[in-house]
Amino acid sequence: MVELKTDTSIDAMYEAGQVVARALTAARQAAAVGVSLLELDEVAHAVLREAGATSPFLGYRPSFAPTPFPAVLCVSVNDAIVHGIPGRYRLRDGDLVSIDFGAELGGWVGDSALSFVVGTPRAADLRLIETAERALAAGIEAAVVGNRIGDIAHAIGTVCRGAGYGIPDGFGGHGIGRRMHEDPGVPNEGRPGRGMRLRHGMVLAIEPMVVAGGTDDFHAAPDGWTLKTNDGSRAAHAEHTVAITDSGPRILTAR
């Protein structure tokens, strides 16, 4: 069931989204050679505490997970696509890092992600990140009243496939509101003109993921959470929480 949010509720979701934006910005600024992933998680946690917000990630346990998620920030490095658990690993020069974060404030949730390179970047990594961001922009551009979910999926998939990248099979965006994951699902590839019609008040987390090696296959790491590319190639992830409105898409987690 899809809940249509009121304009007042969308404004409240914007406040949650801005906590997310601040936490991602702070974590990105703190990421440097020698910094541990646990330290990045603490930076994000401090933003939550300052805002009086809570984490929808911490303690989250979907059906596939062997244990509850133990952190407020997902940190996925190099061949990790999403859901990386922050640990003692210290960032190295040239690491490609994807960070994903959510916040709950006043009963509403925001969710966003970004990718970047620590230290000296490889041209191939910059191209991968740019493609993820471009795919996100294309998906948001298609998120207008009267379009369908398939139009968003097609826009994302066209950018990713056109660049020669893989798209992790079965993973994509989702509805969001009172809970982090709500209906409808938002695939990262699909046929235009298909699926649920977009209406004013729908709020979606749109999140392309791209794999440099061009394949869609992945596996779960021993921790049961981190998804890694099968071929060892690098991955990038970009995400925003977006409200569908009569005046166009509104990015609630804009940084």
Topology:
Blueprint: H1 7-30, H2 37-51, E1 73-77, E2 80-82, E3 96-105, E4 108-117, H3 123-141, H4 149-162, E5 173-175, E6 182-186, E7 203-206, E8 209-211, E9 218-220, E10 227-229, E11 235-237, E12 240-243, E13 250-251
Antiparallel strand pairs: 1-3, 2-10, 3-4, 5-6, 5-7, 7-12, 8-11, 9-10, 12-13
Helix pairs in contact: 1-2, 3-4
Summarize the structure.
By secondary structure, this protein is α+β, with helices and mostly antiparallel strands. It has 4 helices and 13 strands.
Describe the structure.
The protein has helices spanning 7-30, 37-51, 123-141, 149-162, and strands at residues 73-77, 80-82, 96-105, 108-117, 173-175, 182-186, 203-206, 209-211, 218-220, 227-229, 235-237, 240-243, 250-251. The chain is an alpha+beta fold. A five-stranded antiparallel beta sheet has the order 6-5-7-12-13. α1 packs antiparallel against α2 (37-51) and α3 packs antiparallel against α4. The mean pLDDT is 97.
